[in-house]
Each structure stands twice: as structure tokens, then as C-alpha cells.
Specification:
11 helices; globular; mainly alpha; 74% helix
Length: 248
């Protein structure tokens, strides 16, 4: 049994709606500069919570579109062998597991932002104010593009169908756990790239969109490592140019 048309419409529209809401929230934050004053003083618990919320919603805005193909693949697998039972509920649990992984990452990203601001390495606009930090972020992201962990996680993200089919089990809890595992592969593929948000600005929507499109392109391209290697070389060269003073 394939996924019913109404289920497809419901699934895609709900995911698209959630993504648009997340982007709308980021747009609202950027236009109102909410939380920017936290970069000029010691953080209060409320500041930490608001920054965590910003990161968590940002990860939904950035990463949920890149997971759409895997979610639809899981939905088709879940629909196999069912009669009148809708597979939509376990699909949402699968997506929830994926989002949960990036929510946990958001805790670490918030702690990193707090540490960088405490060390006076970020401007109040949450942009790197250190040439060394900017270069380190670029070079680290470039080097990571060559690592076996990156290769393994990227191959999974580019072709998740066999993994999802082999590990599929009925039940909402099992769906959530599989979503966690798939999210773990996605995190392993992209976590270093997220550090580049501190280079162009955590609340720079154009920069956020650029990284989102880069991640999406990596996942949608055919399973080859040539583009990954080329992007890694480019990041390293730009990082070295930063250190040499050739980049502003």
C-alpha cells in the first residue's frame, strides 16, 4: 500500500507550515533585534532560555527542509502492508525524533555562544569579532569535510532508504527512536558547518539561508564525495586568507 494522497498532502503541508513558522520567528527576531542586548552584559537565566529557543527554532527552520525526503521515504515504508490504518502518526513521531536531536544540539550551541561572548569573541550582533576565531571556524569546517565520519554520515543522508527500510519497526516509540538515529547521522554530517553561523552572524537571515541551501545541496546531490572535497578545500583556503589578512 502506498501513502494515500490525502496523507501526502497533510504531511507535506504540516511540515511546510512548521518550517514557515520557524522562518517567520527568525525574521521577527532579526527585525526587532530581540536578545541582542544579552551580548553586552552577563547572561541571566532568561537570556540563556531565549537564546536556546532561538537556536532550537533556527534548527527547525534550517534542518527540517533537508529531512523532507527522508521523512517521505519513511512514510512510504510505514504505509507498506497497512490496510485502512493511516501511517501519519508514526511519521510525525519519526520527525519528532529528528527534531529532538537538533534540539539537543541547540543546548550545546547556546553554551558555545555563551562561552564565546564571555571571552569577548562575539559582537553584540552575534558575529565573530576575532580573525582567529573566524579562520578557525572555516578551517575546522573544511577539514571536517575530509573525515571518515563526515563521509559515512553524508552517504546515509544522501541515500537513507536502505537504512530506514532495514531498521523500520511498527509503533510510535520505534518511529521516534528511528528518527533519533537518522537525526544523529544528520547531526554528524552538519554539526561543524553550524559553527559557521558565528562567522556570518547567528541572526543574519541571508547567511542562515545560504548554509541551509548548502546542506540541502549536499544531501540531494548524487552519492559522491567530489563536491564535499571541493567545498572543504574552499573553506580551508578562505580560512587561511582570513589569517593572512586577505579577507576582511
Amino acid at each position: 500500500m502506498s501513502l494515500r494522497r490525502w496523507d501526502q498532502v497533510l504531511l507535506v503541508s504540516s511540515l511546510a507550515g512548521l518550517t514557515l513558522l520557524a522562518w517567520a520567528y527568525l525574521f521577527y527576531l532579526e527585525k526587532n533585534m530581540i536578545g541582542m542586548d544579552a551580548g553586552m552584559r552577563a547572561w541571566l537565566p532568561s537570556d540563556f532560555f531565549m537564546m536556546f529557543l532561538m537556536w532550537a527554532i533556527m534548527m527547525v527552520a534550517m534542518m527540517l527542509p533537508t529531512a523532507l525526503r527522508a521523512i517521505l521515504i519513511y512514510a512510504r515504508i510505514a504505509a507498506q502492508g497497512r490496510q485502512d490504518e493511516s501511517p501519519i502518526a508514526p511519521v510525525y513521531f519519526f520527525g519528532g525524533g529528528y527534531i529532538a536531536i537538533w534540539t539537543l544540539f541547540s543546548v550545546g550551541a547556546t553554551l558555545m555562544q555563551w562561552g564565546l561572548q564571555w571571552a569577548a569573541l562575539l559582537s553584540p550582533m552575534m558575529v565573530s569579532s576575532s580573525v582567529g576565531l573566524g579562520a578557525a571556524l572555516l578551517i575546522a569546517a573544511g577539514i571536517y569535510q575530509f573525515t571518515p565520519l563526515k563521509d559515512a554520515c553524508l552517504k546515509h543522508c544522501q541515500s537513507p532508504i536502505m537504512y530506514l527500510a532495514a531498521n523500520y519497526k511498527k509503533g510510535n516509540q520505534q518511529a521516534f527512536q528511528l528518527g533519533l538515529k537518522h537525526g544523529g547521522y544528520c547531526l554528524g554530517c552538519c554539526w561543524v558547518l553550524m559553527g559557521l553561523l558565528f562567522l556570518g552572524g547567528v541572526m543574519n537571515l541571508i547567511w542562515i539561508l545560504a548554509i541551509t541551501l548548502f546542506v540541502l545541496a549536499e544531501k540531494l546531490l548524487p552519492p559522491t564525495l567530489h563536491g564535499t572535497r571541493l567545498s572543504g578545500v574552499a573553506m580551508i583556503l578562505v580560512g587561511v586568507a582570513f589569517l593572512a589578512g586577505y579577507m576582511p
